[in-house]
Specification:
The protein has 167 residues and is α/β, with parallel strands linked by helices. The protein has one domain: Glutaredoxin (3-Layer(aba) Sandwich), CATH 3.40.30.10. The chain has five helices and eight strands. It has a six-stranded mixed beta sheet with strand order 1-8-7-4-5-6. Strands 2-3 form a two-stranded antiparallel sheet.
């Protein structure tokens, strides 16, 4: 594989959104009412069941430990999550890496205030139709889901979460 082809592959695998989070949606969004259920190991121990957020506004943030775009958007995700604390649960869904690297990502990005689950099989990503990171699944308390593929900056993420609370 040539260096150019390898670079294109890496950029595509990391969401293809460019050099970091922006304040505009930089990819696509799809809506679904699919009822996804899962139970997954949490980073740091324990398990999380999707049943725990049934009837609650929830955001799943899909990230990979080696994704530079995910690292770049981490401060925005934690800031917006803190602003909506008590209204929306934000859960990191880590995939495409080994658990020690996932733990390092959480430590390096100071996202430990969020709950993070390990999706080492990729089944949660697949069930939500997520093929690239970063991505978000906005789950309304009525069970409807909107999936956004790509990074969101602080303003766009806040707008999405405001809409989630208002619905």
């Amino acid at each position: 594989m040539s260096l150019g082809a390898g670079l294109i592959l890496v950029l595509a695998a990391c969401g293809g959104g460019g050099g970091g989070a922006t304040d505009e949606a930089d990819s696509s969004a799809t809506a679904t009412s699919k009822d996804v259920t899962f139970e997954a190991a949490k980073l740091g121990g324990g398990t999380l069941s999707s049943a725990s957020f049934k009837g609650k506004d929830t955001v799943l943030w899909f990230w990979a430990p080696w994704c530079t775009i995910c690292r770049g958007e981490a401060p925005d995700v934690t800031s917006v999550a803190a602003a909506f604390d008590g209204e929306i649960e934000v859960i990191g869904v880590a995939g495409r890496g080994e658990e020690p690297a996932m733990e390092d990502f959480v430590s390096d990005t100071d996202t430990g205030a969020l709950t993070h689950v390990v999706d080492d099989s990729g089944s949660i990503w697949s069930d939500y139709g997520v093929a690239a990171q970063p991505s978000f699944a906005f789950i309304d308390d009525d069970g409807s889901v909107e999936v956004h593929i790509g990074a969101l900056g602080e303003a766009a993420l806040t707008k999405q979460m405001d809409a989630l609370v208002a619905s």
